[in-house]
Amino acid sequence: MKKLSSRGASPNWCASFGLVLSSVGVFLVLLALSVNSGSTVRAADANQSPKPIVIYSTHNDVSPALRDVEPWPDVRVQEHEAAANWRVSTGAHKDQPDLVVQKGMLLGQLAPRIPAPILTFAGIPYPGVVCSCAPPDTNGEVGATQYVQIVNEGYQVFDKATGASILGPNSIASVWSGFGGVCQTAGQGDPVVLYDQIANRWLISQFANGLHDECIAVSTTSDATGTWNRYDFHLTNTTLDDYPKIGVWPDGYYMTMNIFNSTGTAYLGPQAWAFDRAKMLAGQSATMITFPTLGPLFPPWLPGDLDGSTLPPTGAPNPLVFLPDNTPSTYRVYHFHADFANPLNSTLTFFGESPAAGWSQLTALVPELGVTSSNYLDNLADRLMFRLAYRNFGDHESLVGNWTVKSNNIAGVRWFELRGVTNGPVTTFQDSTFQPDTTWRWMGSVAMDKDGNMALGYSASDATIHPQVRYTGRMATDPINTMSLGEGHIFDGAGSQTATSNRWGDYSDMTVDPVDDQTFWFTTEYYDTVSSFNWRTRIGSFKLSGGTGTLNLLSAASRLTHGTAGTFDISMPLSGPSGVEDRQATSYNAVFTFDAAVTSGQVTVVSGTATVGAITFSGNSMTANITGVTSAEVVTLRAQNINNDGQPHGDVAFGFLAGDADGDRKVAKPDQLLVKGDVNKAVTSANFREDLDADGQIRNQDVQIVKANKGHRIP
């Protein structure tokens, strides 16, 4: 949560009342407010859904490519030392002994089995481009080829293979450059970045306009430096909607927030929204569906966020889980089903609950080396920590999360795994506190890989060390309720924070690479000197499995040689829609590149019409000759048994559409104009797609290939 010097003090909240809405928007917002104002909706506990509220985006458009947008000037503003964070307390929790603290960890700590980081590199530093605020609200996500980190109020795009910066750091508001309105001029942070691996798109968001609007952008491709579909959703005129957290789900983007009165002095309860994912992916005007605030007796909650390539059961609602602050403690699961075709069919209902082990609320600040106790760090122990990671394994589904608890009078991370969260019954499969010694651990984030191995990242500090970035983990075959691998270090800070209103976090982020579905990526903050308002961030990756000779597929491409002009590749994404091979040939070369040397392997046809011929090996690559392909089809190829490991290594869709020079999956007049405009030009890496017969020249023969295939398309 970004803290402003005026936040909680009052003067600027009225600014949003000047927002001009359409008459329909005004009516819907007023309807939302008339239902929301402080009411407690208890009917949901009786499995009865309140009435949904539908609100349209106030504005949407498509951005220029971010790589072409001029960086906004680095304008320093007064550093923000805000008042204390808005605490959430329902009054229901009663401290209980923690009986699930993991025991017997000494050997694991002295001789940890956890793998060392693969990469670790610096992320965005203070001031967060333009914010000059604390805390940074660090989070990040890994995509097909990039890693995107976001903080208050900046973002940066990195090459995930090397950690090298590709773009930024730039201000988040610059994403809305030319958009107009509060998203361009009044962004306030609490940012989130996600990778929608179903569609291979990015999502970034931050709130704006005195916590009254949510600004969301969805990329048009898997390249975060390209164009984005941009939206402004006006949430409210009278309440402060805080701590937005978003999860990807097949039927929508689901968001939860904590709602306060206009002065931040009263907690009104949690609220959830669903955004029309299909419309936002298409760049069309979109709606959001919400329900009235549940009321102050309900603690904060989080939405489920999909990991992995296996989708939830068809039609499954998004599972939302509360902090288990009730007595006796239980993990309460609500179901949010958004129906954008028939919004009144949308529902928000209580689904089930399962026991949570007893725990005690942490109220003390976290100690750090070299500073007085008045400078110790905020614990944010009143809510679940980002993310609530969902994964469908086929025979079961898992939902994992964490929060900070007091155990043995210091901070520990309570982590849990729930099962049956969409189909039921809801059960607590694992529930344990990681607190193996006298060091305080807090501000965690947890996720699972495709094999069910779990990684937990967090901050670690005490009076003898500066805050550090650490992680632990467990294998799926380990005894339940144990983080058995010991502890790894991504980065040990060399400084402690002073002043800065004690702010730390407010969240961190553990994500999983969508390509190999095994590599974990974690990011959070640290300090490199004893100072105030001078945070740094770190990004690290590691694996818990796949390190014993098993190779991982990194990329795939269709390769042809264009006479004397050279050899050129067309990339084929490892997930989501296929790439498009537009060149007309009798044979193609399918190239698979791995993370280590390849000496043997196989390629098989999973679907489509094709014949696999000779296979060759060079360094980390395996190349298979492909013949018998018909134009206007998608062929799925499987790389398997690499270096005789007996395992599949990914199914890759290769799209073949002769004449589709612009790669938009259809052959039309723009392709003809594109090729015709380059006739007689030299073939280069920038225009080789227009050399459709791959003879090293762009000629009228290539134009004829477009004409012959006009009207053809692939899905």
How would you sum up this structure, described in words?
The protein is mainly beta and 715 residues long. The chain folds into 2 domains: 13-340 and 352-543, no CATH class; 553-709, no CATH class. 7% of the residues lie in helices and 39% in strands. It is built from 6 helices and 39 strands. The strands form 8 sheets. An 8-stranded mixed β-sheet has the order 19-18-17-16-20-21-22-23, with no helix packed on it. A 5-stranded antiparallel β-sheet has the order 1-15-14-13-12. The protein has a 5-stranded antiparallel β-sheet with strand order 2-11-10-9-8. Helix 5 runs antiparallel to helix 6 (700-709). The longest helix is centred in the N-terminal third of the chain and has 14 residues, at 23-36. It starts with 22 loop residues before the first helix and ends in a 6-residue tail after the last helix. Residues 2-46 have low confidence and may be disordered.
Output the strand order for the largest sheet: 19-18-17-16-20-21-22-23
Average pLDDT reading: 89
Q: Which bin fits the share of residues in helices?
A: under 10%
- Major β-sheet profile: 8 strands, mixed
Structural class: mainly beta
Number of distinct beta strands: 39
Terminal-residue CA separation: 42 Å
From the spread of the alpha carbons, the general shape counts as globular
What is the CA-atom radius of gyration, in angstroms?
26 Å
Estimate the strand proportion. 35-45%
Whole-number count of domains:
2
Number of helices: 6
Low-confidence stretches: 2-46
